[in-house]
Amino acid sequence: MSLALGLVIIPLLAALLMLLWPRLARGLQLAAALLCTILATMLLQLVQQEGSQQLFIGGWNPLLAIRWQADSVTALLLLLSAVLHLLVSGYALAVQQRDKLAAAFWPLSSLLLASLQALWLSRDLFNLYVCLELLGMVAVALVTLSGDKAMRPALHYLLFSLFASLCYLLGVALLYGAYGALDLPLLQGQLQANSLTAAALVLITLGLMLKAAWWPLHLWLPAAHAAAPAPVSALLSALVVKGPLFILVLVWTTLAPAAFLNVAAYAFLVCALGALLLAGVAALRTPYSKTLVAYSTVAQLGYAMLALALMLSFNLPVFTAALWLFVMAHALAKAACFLSIGEMQQTLGVKKVAQLKGASQTMPLAMFAFAVAGGSLIGLPPSGGFLAKWVMLLGLWQAQQYFLLLVLLVATLVSAAYIFRVVVLAFDRAEPTAPDFSPQLLPQWLALLPALAVWAMAFFSMPLLAILQQELS
Amino acid sequence: MMYLAVAILLSMLLGMWRVIKGPTLLDRLLTIQLFGSAGVAICLILAKALSMPALLDVALLLAVLAAAIPAALVQRLRRQI
Amino acid sequence: MGLLLFDLVLATVVLLLAGTAIFSRNLTHAVMLFMAFGVMMALAWARLAAPDLALAEAAIGAGLTGALCFTALVRQPAALDSKVATSLLPICFVALITAALLFSVWQIPVSPNPALSHEVSVALPQSGVAHPVTAVLLNFRSWDTLLELLVLLLALLGAQQAQSSLTLYAGWSLSLSWSRLLSPLIILLTGYLLWRGAAAPGGAFQAGALLASGLVVLRLNQQLTWLSWQNPWVRLAALSGLLVFVLTGLFSLLWSSSRLWLEWPTAYAGAVILGIESFATLAIAVTLTLLVVGEPTEERADA
Amino acid sequence: MSWLDGLSWFLLLLGLVFFIAGSLGLLRFPDQFSRLHAVTKADTLGLGLVVLGLSIQSSWRETLLMLLIWLLVMCSGAVSCQLLARFSRDAADAEPLISHQEPGQTANSTSPASAPVTKRAE
């Protein structure tokens, strides 16, 4: 577990040092990101060899202490956030001069990494609340880096986030009052199917849905994510909304009494369908390119909801694998999308989708990154998105849910529509005159890296599935 | 003993009307002052009635804050004349 | 009987204050009512025999929040009337949650699960302190406390992005000497609360908030002009709580016998906790002060 | 001991009377400065009587602490009375930004500090 500890403490200490000596910020950022990636890889190997690891902080017994647990899903998520942090930091380092990125970006993004890693590791309801709160505060602070125009969305984000935390905390307080424990493995199987548990679970779920921007409660997300600087949007969309999702999955798979599972599955299913179809249509209709990508996050989260609903109602291991594959593929693809769109926006100085006409000639690399990441979002082979969708289709076939198969098909078409809306415009050879600017190559390559990573996921499908299956057995 | 606390509480409630009615900022700041000193009194009575000496510390803290906060507020609210 | 009457009146007053604060059309009234609400909440915690919470609520709710709200208020344009939300949807949502809470609160067992409090009392002698709240906060669940310190720091970092400059005016000589007279008392009381924390209600957070209120008063009277985020020593003070916490944790990881994160050896636990709490108090005080006072760029020395 | 208890209760009730008097004064007095007196003086005296009443029933340590609290409240009542009155006097000369009069009366604020703010309000 000292590896896991390092994963949390290194970015935390790095952030503190950055605040003390702002001059060292960039070097510290890169060093911490590299070190975390290496540690996360080592941890994944360790977990694969020796099974899941546990730590009771302070060495007290489980009733008193906070439990950390690194199973294979956690190890994968730790690696994912470390890798994404590294990639986004690289991009931010490349563009910080041009984009006038605020100096506070470095410590804040490092703290974001630390709080995410702490969240993945924690198995304690109250500690998870603290991590959520931390995540929300960092995210809001990061959104405000855009200056005055971001204040309003950031404030909305803050208020929604606080309200959501409060709902979650109330739910946890009810559970604590009734069962007298906060440790998830200790509570497992203890909950009775009475109205107290129901109220607590409803509060917890509402709070987490609000934080994760699940469909009917997503209203704060598009404005906040679109207002932030490009590296921040990439981190927020790729990682921050996944934190509450992780807790939601933990709560419903380990805590909830069996009698509630069916109702919850139906509720999640309705939300998933709404997200996949309606948020997809919203992405299709919005005139701004960054808002399009932000709405696409809401829509893509629908797949995760669908996978969770299916997990709860069918108890097939395929759906668990599909859920985490979606999370990883979406994180990488969305980071690439935001970085490439941000790069185009910064270089070309345009905000609307319609103005991207002919962008494939002026900024071919960035457009290529967007197209590859978009392909993964749609689910075109070979990509991580395709892998996730394929696993899910297999599961649906196994469970004989032909109606949902159809829905998945329609959702794919919707996402294809909004991705192709951008791509087709960009490949339109409308203006033959070359514009008078020279796009920088390095940031475009760096924006391409996550897209290549999501591509590479398809080639590592076997080991990935093996890791996720290990968790289930 | 608790009836005494209730009576002081009700007298605070009476004073609260000034916050709403005003008419000047001073009247409203006065209500804060009233809440400070009456709050200290209630805290002292509670400490006796519940026999919890720890509440005396709370009263002490309230008293110190009642001393410090008006000075801060007035300074913050001052305007260039 | 008297106790019941007191509870009823207190609950009514708290609800009344909350309602009028929310529905007040004038922001200044709302802030005043909110400060009064803070005093009442402190009394409510005192009545519920939770002096730790009463101390925290008194320091934060009745003290600093008011200064913070007024700082925000003086930046507002004149005669600003807030619109009272008339939208039905949030009200329905809140009503639903309240109903669910009321419905489920009846089912919470009256006497809480005895296992946990028994566990706490068994482990208390090894924790290094005699007050269970402090033992939970700084030993059993110290990781939560560390992260909470980080949340406070982040609040400051976020607020810094939004801050615009505010003019500070020189105080009258009366308020200046009053704040100077008050400051040794506040420092003394801070130390008292911190020291008491090991055995009785009190601790880093309450002490830090109290110290912060003293610093705020001095700062608003144009004293302590060095107190700004630009000053590296101030930054060090604001980060000291976290730094000491993490470094102590690493130290215990490397040199203690069992090599566990955030495990204090029983023999030194009391000293370690007091050390961490002292630095945490300093950090909380500086952070809260910077949060309330901000970074005034312009100062005027008129009387 | 009963006469001590009686004395204690007498003092406590007397304190209550002063608290109520302070509140009534805050409600009924005609202008703000007399209201200021009502609160800062009557309440301080009320607190003092309550402290005296309680200390008859308490140990010497608690009594000391309560007397300290009273001393503090007494000092702070005197000082903040002064501060608030000065603040109000100055604010009456120049209309404060946070206005509690009719909105039309704020127009005479011509100072450089408040000018940009009023412009924003329009």
What features would you describe in this structure?
- Chain A: It is a multi-pass membrane protein.
- Chain A: This is Cation:proton antiporter.
- Chain A: Keywords: Cell membrane, Membrane, Transmembrane, Transmembrane helix.
- The complex is a heterotetramer of chains A (473), B (81), C (303) and D (122).
- Chain A is mostly helical.
- Chain A has helices spanning 2-20, 25-50, 72-99, 105-121, 125-143, 151-179, 184-187, 195-212, 221-227, 230-240, 242-255, 258-285, 289-314, 317-348, 359-362, 364-378, 384-399, 402-427, 441-459, 461-472, and strands at 53-56, 67-70.
- Chain A has a domain at 259-473.
- Chain A has 20 helices and 2 strands.
- Chain A starts with a helix and ends with a helix.
- Chain B has 81 residues and is an all-alpha fold.
- Chain B has one domain.
- Helix content of chain B is 85%, strand content 0%.
- The longest helix of chain B has 25 residues, at 25-49.
- Chain B is flat.
- The mean pLDDT of chain B is 82.
- Chain C has 303 residues and is mainly α.
- Helices cover 72% and strands 1% of the residues of chain C.
- The longest helix of chain C is centred in the last third of the chain and has 25 residues, at 269-293.
- Chain C starts with a helix and ends with a strand.
- In chain D, 76% of the residues lie in helices and 0% in strands.
- Residues 96-122 of chain D have low confidence and may be disordered.
- Chain D has helices spanning 2-28, 32-56, 60-93, 115-121.
- By secondary structure, chain D is mostly helical.
- In chain D, helix 2 packs antiparallel against helix 3 (60-93).
- Chains in contact: A-C, B-C, B-D, C-D.
- The interface between A and C is large, with 59 and 50 residues.
Descriptive key words:
heterotetramer, B: 81 residues, mainly alpha, 3 helices, 85% helix, C: 303 residues, 2 domains, 2 strands, 72% helix, transmembrane helix (chain A), membrane (chain A), transmembrane (chain A), CPA3_Na-H_Antiporter_D (chain A), Cation:proton antiporter (chain A)
Oligomer: heterotetramer
As a percent range, the share of strand residues of chain A is under 5%
Provide mean pLDDT of chain B, rounded. 82
Distance N to C terminus of chain B = 49 Å
What is the number of domains of chain B? 1
User: Cα-atom Rg of chain B, whole angstroms?
Assistant: 15 Å
Radius of gyration of chain A: 21 Å
Low-confidence stretches of chain B are: none
Secondary-structure element series of chain A: HHEEHHHHHHHHHHHHHHHHHH
Order of helices and strands of chain B: HHH
